[in-house]
Amino acid sequence: MKLDNKEIFKTLNPNKVWVPVFIGLAIVFLMFYLDPNVNAQTLRGVFDASIPYILLAILFIVLRDIGYMFRIREVTNKHLTWTRALYVIILWEFASAVTPSIVGGTAVAAFILQKEGIPLGKALAFTMLTAIMDNLFFVIGAPIILYFAQGYIFPESRILEMRLGSSIVYLFWASYSLYAFYSILMAGALFYRPRVFKWLLLKIFSIKWIRKWKYNANMYGDQIIEASKEIRGKPLSYWLIIVSATIFIWCSRYFMLNALISAFNGLELFEHVVVFARQIIMWVVMMISPTPGSSGTAEFFFSQFFKEFLLGYTFVTSILWRMFSYYPYLILGAIFLPRWIKQVFFKKRGKKGSARNPKKDGINE
């Protein structure tokens, strides 16, 4: 069982930051050009923001990343120091930012953990576990938040209705159904019957026109079996900590936008609930985006979901939202990646007394 290092380093490529940046900027300029209400005066609206709420939004971003670092340390039984956890999270977020949302950065995260000294079987188990926890937050959280914000959660969108022939409600439920099916299937494979999952996978990929991927399916089935062995027998406290950390992480992520909107337009308590709820709905819809880090898709849907709370500040807030929650990880990833490669592939060889071959690991010097 092994990971394709060359493919992973194709993902962990600092040059890839330009693709999502270009897509995001293209959509922003298109919105600027097509919307008659957006002009130079609109951009000056950024100076109307409340500084305390902007600082609160930044605090939520920091809390989210601390939550990620805490969770990965707990998941790995504190194998990682806080510094190493920071590297893992930044590179994981970078991988997610340069790949489509539906792909994510799970394989890259397993590779990073393996290079941090965690055996591959455990690394796969830990990354799959965190991915499943994140997925279940949406699968379980969406119906709950739908209940609390009933009647106000889906924005009316003439654009979506004209282009798709139906409302955003159907788009959400289509995305949610696919994601729920995938999450439940993966949870069942990891926690209940991994060998049954592998058998089913091989049967599916025995079909003639997809048979060429049967080897990859077999390898993935082996990974699931190995990962399942690693996480069995964990105490209740282990699961409570991980679940609590996952809820904290995603609430911090979403409260950031609540604070950002409040910086331009004060919200009532119920409006805060609706904004929080719509973020979950929007995130589920964005999961099927084919662009890296949902570039373009995120900017478009932001206007559809939150314009009624921001009015003339919608365009400016959408830019700030992406500047706070997305683009920093592209920049930090490009900065951290070369340092991490030197630490993992070059500095450690002096300690072990034997040099690694970077090209063999898929790195071009």
- Series of H and E elements: HHHHHHHHHHHHHHHH
Class from secondary-structure proportions: mainly alpha
User: Stretches where pLDDT falls below 50 for ≥5 residues?
Assistant: 158-165
Which value, in Å, is the CA radius of gyration? 22 Å
Mean pLDDT: 80
Proportion of residues in helical segments: over 70%
Sheet having the most strands: none
- Count of discrete domains: 1
How does the overall form come out from the CA principal axes?
A: globular
Number of helices: 16
Task: Tell me the number of strands.
Answer: 0
**What is the rounded distance between the termini?**
26 Å
Portion in beta strands: under 5%
What does this structure look like?
- The structure is a single chain.
- The protein is built from 16 helices and no strands.
- Residues 158-165 have low confidence and may be disordered.
- The radius of gyration is 22 Å and the shape is globular.
- It has one domain (5-352).
- It has 365 residues and is mainly alpha-helical.
- Helices cover 73% and strands 0% of the residues.
- The longest helix is centred in the middle third of the chain and has 29 residues, at 120-148.
- The protein has helices at residues 5-11, 18-34, 40-43, 51-75, 82-97, 106-115, 120-148, 158-164, 168-191, 194-204, 214-231, 236-262, 269-286, 297-310, 314-325, 327-352.
Write the layout of secondary structure elements.
Elements: H1 5-11, H2 18-34, H3 40-43, H4 51-75, H5 82-97, H6 106-115, H7 120-148, H8 158-164, H9 168-191, H10 194-204, H11 214-231, H12 236-262, H13 269-286, H14 297-310, H15 314-325, H16 327-352
Helix pairs in contact: 4-5, 4-12, 5-6, 5-16, 6-7, 7-9, 7-11, 7-12, 7-13, 9-10, 9-13, 10-11, 12-13, 12-15, 13-14, 14-15
